[in-house]
Structures are given as C-alpha cells and as structure tokens.
Model the fold of this input.
Amino acid sequence: MNGTSPILCPSCECNKSHLIGSLPDTTSFAGKAVDLFLPGGCLYQCPTCQLKFRYPLQDDAVYRALYDNGETAIWSSNIHRYDWDLIIEYMGSRSDQRKTVLDFGCNSGELLARLSPTYKRFGVEVNQIAANRARETQHATVWPTLADIPAGLKF
Done:
C-alpha cells in the first residue's frame, strides 16, 4: 500500500497487493549511465495472480527512451538463464490444449526459441530492432505494447 489507497495489480486489478520492498533511485539502466533520473519506487506482489510489479510506473515515453534506442538495439544473452529453465519446465508440464505463449519483453525471441515447436509464439517488445529479429527468427507475432494485442487472444 502507498499509505493512502490500495495499489491495484496491473494484471488482475486485485486491490490487496503487498509491498515487497523499495527500489533504489538510479541514473543507470542495463548497466549503462543514462541521462534520465529514474526514481525507484517500490516492488509489489499480487496475492491473486502472483504478478510482481513496480509502482509507480514511469511515463511511456521514459520506457520507450530506455528500451528503444541505438544503445540497446538487441540484448543478447550468452549466459545460462535459470529462470528460463523454470519457464520451459513449467510449460512442458502443462497438459492443457492451449499452445499459445506470450513473452512480455521478448527481445529477439531467445526464450521463444527454447519452446517446443508446437507453440504459437507471441511477444511484446518495445525495441523495434529486437522485435523484428523475433519476428524473423522465431516467426513470432510481436506487438510494441499490451494495448496492441487483439482482444480475445488467450495465452
């Protein structure tokens, strides 16, 4: 809570999200100095859908400046991602018939590449160079924002 009103989960709009902790203010992003002062805010978790999210959010223009620029064209990950191992294991354990997946912040589609070929791949990626690579290499449908996803799609 922010002291005056509940913090709504941006995913399910539950009003019982709890504070995990404060995030520090910074003038760096992805290990590089930036011209912007970035207030840290706080990290919350929703008890209903388990989403962890930052609050307050910055203006869309701030995120676009951070993610879609020449300095961050494509962030290639040459290190082993244990979080991706967990995602792949979880996806493989599901027996439901839905075989569509949305990777929010999909970059160039490296996580999507690790999925079984039976999945339809979708992504959200603000960086257009990275989004184009995900489209080309993973044959993913990639949108620049959540608002661009057609209504009715389920993941």
The mean pLDDT is 84. Residues 82-93 form the longest helix (12 residues). The radius of gyration is 17 Å. The CA atoms of residues 110 and 134 lie 8 Å apart.
